[in-house]
From TrEMBL:
Protein name: NADPH-dependent 7-cyano-7-deazaguanine reductase
HAMAP family assigned: QueF_type1 (MF_00818)
UniProt superkingdom: Bacteria
Compositionally biased region (Polar residues): 1-16
Alphabetized InterPro entries for the sequence: GTP-CH-I_C/QueF, NADPH_dep_7-cyano-7-deazaG_red, QueF, QueF_type1
Region Disordered: start-end pairs: 1-22
Organism: Parerythrobacter lacustris
Spans traversing the lipid bilayer: none
Catalytic activity: 7-aminomethyl-7-carbaguanine + 2 NADP(+) = 7-cyano-7-carbaguanine + 2 NADPH + 3 H(+)
Gene Ontology MF terms in the entry: preQ1 synthase activity
The enzyme's E.C. designation: 1.7.1.13
Pfam families: QueF (PF14489)
């Protein structure tokens, strides 16, 4: 038996956590430790709640990171992101909070998150956060999410 912790959620029927604080993120050993590469997760249908009105807010999140010793297991990330459906938070707090939690727990070489929020009240809000400058030599493609242009 290996001493490496096994992911808790893979192959299991797992309900969404009640809140982001209750969500558990699984990390597994980086299969290419020592290699500089980028991992991208896109969540084009992310949802949270407005802390003032309780109305749903929708965003397209893009999370890019250069792994260190571990990578985040994708099902646990999906459950973590889904736990925001009933969480009230301003766009800035939600976006930066997701990035900071991943950075603190996973300790990647580099991480950035882009939160492209759909407008409510006529104003789209885009929020960006990163741990610092990307490592030299890391290929960092554009996130590929067009700025909001309305229907025109």
């Amino acid at each position: 038996m290996s001493d490496t912790p096994q992911p808790q959620f893979l192959g299991q029927q797992t309900p969404l956590p009640a809140s982001p604080n209750e969500a558990v993120l699984d990390y597994v050993p980086n299969p290419r430790e020592g290699t500089l590469y980028l991992v991208r997760f896109a969540a084009p249908e992310f949802t949270s709640l407005c802390p003032v009105t309780g109305q749903p807010d929708f965003a397209h999140l893009v999370i890019d990171y250069a792994p260190g010793e571990t990578i985040v297991e994708s099902k646990s990330l999906k459950l973590f992101l889904g736990s925001f459906r009933n969480h009230a938070g301003f766009h800035e707090d939600v976006t930066v909070g997701i990035g900071q939690r991943l950075a603190q727990e996973m300790q990647p070489r580099w991480l950035r998150i882009g939160g492209y929020w759909y407008p409510r009240g006529g104003i789209p809000i885009d929020v960006f956060w990163q741990t610092g400058a990307p490592p030299e030599g890391l290929w960092v493609p554009e996130q590929g999410v067009a700025p909001y242009r309305g229907r025109g």
